[in-house]
Amino acid sequence: MPLPSPILLTADSAHTPPPIPTTCKAIDTDALPGGFERGIITALSGGAGTGKTLIALHALTTLLLTDPRAEAAVVDTTGSFDVGRLRGVVMARVMVGAGGDGNAGHSGEERERIVGNVLDRVKIMRVWDMVGLMEAVGEVREGLERRGSGKGRSEVVAGSQGEDEDEEMVEEEEEAVETLPERVGVIVIDTITNVVAPVMSKSQVQGHALLITFARSLSLLTAHHSLLTLLINNVVSTTPRRQNPPHAPSTDASIFASTHGKPALGRSFSYCVDTHVMLSKVARGREDAEMAVEVGKGKGKVGWREVGVCEVLEQRFGPGKGRWGCFVVEVGCCVVGFDWG
Fold first, then answer.
1. In 10 A of CB 198, how many CB atoms?
2. Between 291 and which of 44, 71, 124, 304 could a Cys-Cys bridge form, CB atoms 3.0 to 4.6 Å apart?
């Protein structure tokens, strides 16, 4: 007898792992209570310097610090992934012990050991096009399936050898089991725009079809293995609201009037993800906003202060649409919540 959908949803939610926090209040409390959910695809769209990659690295770091058997797959489509930046994020988190990892108070040598252990579990996969992206995700899928079926373990076949040889084989098998590769728990694609946009520029129909096919396959993989999957996306410019004709609908995605732009890859991209977050920057205070306006008119001096904004554009499985929070980046790698109050 088939179960009613509410019962199925309750059963699924009972087995869903807890979300992964970034340790930034603006994201974990204000925008996405608890952090990034596992088992669904989350997109981070934003312009250059808005913090989208940095926030993804913090979520990745949380998972690797809290789960010593977890591994991360970072698919780099631009060739600009900065390992030094990732190391800075991990070191900062280890020093403060944020995220419930309990690593604060370690000696310098112990901190270096923990950071090295985390970095060793990050696999960087460089791809140049959509075919390479699909192959990279396929490699992750094969690894997860091989791990789940136990095919990575050494098998002992009974034979005519003596007992000593059998014992040696058993010891080798146990050692092989102990050194099994870690299980991938997070996938970060930075950026999805770089491989999909060229296809769409040649054929919109083919590009959208390819994107939807890839997203469906990635969604099944993510849900089946309860992965933390983050897609980093760019934004495209739009006409500022003040330049639009009266009563014309705005093409901006943000609820903030000073933020112009919308996620790249078109409307269909939003249907390919479960939670869509947009990152932008706004003036920190009234004086900063006035300076920004003057600069926009060709007057004044550049140098106003800004804060990052994380706002939820879409959330398929929750009421989070419209939630937002503000943050600032300190020491180049720490994301800290910002309160206007």
1. 12
2. 304
Residues paired with 311 in a beta bridge: 278, 324
Under DSSP, the state recorded for 293 is H
The rounded distance, in Å, linking the Cα atoms of 195 and 206 is 13
Structure tokens belonging to residue 162? 């003596």
Q: Looking at the whole model, is its pTM more than 0.90?
A: no
Where do we find the tokens 């006035």?
290
Sign of CA dihedral 62, 63, 64, 65: positive
Bridge partners of residue 276, in order along the sequence: 43, 314
Query: 275-283 and 262-263 as β-strands: parallel, antiparallel, unpaired?
Result: unpaired
- Cis? peptide before 191, omega within 30° of 0: yes
CA distances (Å), origin 334, targets 55, 75, 220, 261: 9, 23, 33, 26
The tokens for 119 are 């970095």
DSSP characters for 83-124? HHHHHHHHHHHHHHTGGGT--TT--HHHHHHHHHHHHHTEEE
- If one counts every other C-beta atom within 10 angstroms of the C-beta of residue 67, the result is 17
Residues contacting residue 205 through CB under 8 Å, at least 6 positions apart: none
150-161: pLDDT as tens digits: 654 433 334 444
Q: What is the 3-state secondary structure (H, E, C) of 203-243?
A: CHHHHHHHHHHHHHHHHHHHHHHCCEEEEEECEECCCCHHH
DSSP state letters, 9-49: HHHHHHTSPPPB--S-HIIIIIISTTSBPSSSEEEEEE-TT
Which helix (H) or strand (E) segment holds residue 282: the answer is strand 275-283
Average pLDDT across the chain, whole number: 80
Bridge-partner residues for 42, per DSSP? Answer: 230, 275
Q: Is 102's pLDDT higher than 80?
A: no
Cα dihedral sign, 85-82-227-69: negative
Using CA atoms, how far residue 140 sits from 81, 187, 223, in Å, is 19, 9, 14
- The answer to whether the beta carbons of residues 186 and 65 sit under 8 Å apart is no
Using the predicted structure, report yes or no on whether residue 326 has a pLDDT greater than 70: yes
